[in-house]
Write a sequence for this structure.
């Protein structure tokens, strides 16, 4: 199968850096680490292409079987728009990420598959089902994952020269209860640490 993974453009916000990044000859702040990690779980027998719309335009004519989308609530309208356009071309649509984790029903009408929860627990199963044409409408993670099972992100799918910095995820979860943040809802209040290796 051919996977086309897309990180939709982020509207102007505190995190978008669309004015600061060009001052140092970069296009955006950081690559889409969650999508790169999900790409790391796709078996090598499949072809994977990644588009970060914050640094390059979407190829609407992409030769692919599956279009994978991720994003935060700020990106919801763009996720829906992209999914609708590719679905009209007969592509299978998979959505996941923070927005889908907290509001999965919003994506029911535009996605063939919704990944609800931490991908390490359910993405591989969804891929196997996609391979055999037996995918379910939604895959729900039942628990938090052991971060030692998280693969290396596929940094080879992006150009480091496009970004201000390349980030690494070292932990998930947070012990605090800040009223403006949904991290504890998505990833729990226990801080989990990735092994250094």
């Amino acid at each position: 199968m051919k996977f086309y993974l897309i990180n939709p453009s982020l509207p102007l916000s505190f995190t978008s850096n669309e004015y600061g990044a060009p001052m140092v000859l970069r296009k955006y702040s950081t690559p889409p680490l969650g999508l790169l990690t999900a790409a790391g779980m796709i078996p090598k027998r499949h072809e994977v292409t990644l588009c970060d719309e914050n640094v390059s335009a979407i190829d609407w004519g992409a030769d692919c079987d599956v279009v994978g989308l991720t994003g935060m609530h700020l990106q919801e309208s763009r996720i829906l728009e992209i999914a609708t356009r590719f679905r009209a071309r007969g592509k299978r649509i998979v959505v996941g990420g923070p927005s889908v984790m907290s509001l999965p029903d919003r994506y029911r009408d535009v996605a063939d598959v919704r990944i609800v929860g931490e991908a390490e627990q359910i993405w591989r199963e969804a891929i196997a089902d996609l391979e055999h044409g037996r995918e379910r409408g939604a895959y729900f993670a039942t628990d938090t994952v052991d971060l030692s099972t998280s693969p290396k992100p596929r940094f080879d799918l992006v150009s480091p020269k496009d970004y201000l910095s390349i980030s690494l995820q070292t932990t998930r979860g947070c012990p605090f209860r800040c009223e403006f943040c949904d991290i504890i809802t998505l990833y729990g209040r226990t801080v989990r640490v990735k092994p250094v290796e």
Observations:
- Strands lie at 2-7, 47-52, 66-70, 92-96, 113-116, 138-140, 171-172, 192-193.
- The mean pLDDT is 91.
